[in-house]
Amino acid sequence: MLTINRENLIMDFLKENETIKTKYVMDHFNISEATARRDLANLEKKDLIKRVHGGAILSNINFFSKDSNIAFRKNVNRKEKEKIAEYAASLIKDNSVIFLDAGTTTFQMIKYLKNKNIKVVTNGLNFIDELEKISVESFLLGGKIKYKTSCTVGFSASKYLETFNFDYVFIGANALNLNGYSTPDGDEAVVKEKAISLGKDIYFLCDHSKVNKNSFIIFSSLNKGKLITDSILPKEYESFKNLEVVK
Asked: Which residue among 44, 127, 198, 219 is least packed, with the fewest CB closer than 10 Å?
């Protein structure tokens, strides 16, 4: 098959599925890994896709204003998320109760919680197995299951949250700007807002790609907690001092 034909078929797949793995390209077209990577590199040079760990995504997809599949989001800015997660976990003292909001950056914190004497409450369905592996006592919020982002949301989850008090709350967001932190889903916003109200120390974990973006529902103002990010904020945020930039 001609390279241009493969590229067209890759783009057709991406428009339907949002993400594509290098292994899928290899198997589907019966080509070598080097050829698959070259095809993806060519598409990236044309500014049609963005390569991420293990594959690629469409370059023009707006994953701030809508919910994207968690398998897709976890590979976006993976290194930056790792740095943010490691720093966030280092803030936690023993004998603490923490809330981990469902999200790909907060999920990366789990590996750094090993050997900490803590209790973790979360609405992330996929968090529980990982917390069990490192023997951390954990509690899963009940509620409506949102399969696309692998979490529990809504009124029931929010009511269950009221039975806890948190030393630390770690929250993810799809976007942030001067108006606050936002998410595309109202049911998720309810859980985030409630968790923030129950915590002593609040941290928002957002890599640079979330900055100056908009999503549907604002669930918190910027002054509700400290932002942990990986890049200096634009000039218009110079009065906002409650942040930590990790390199």
From this structure: 44
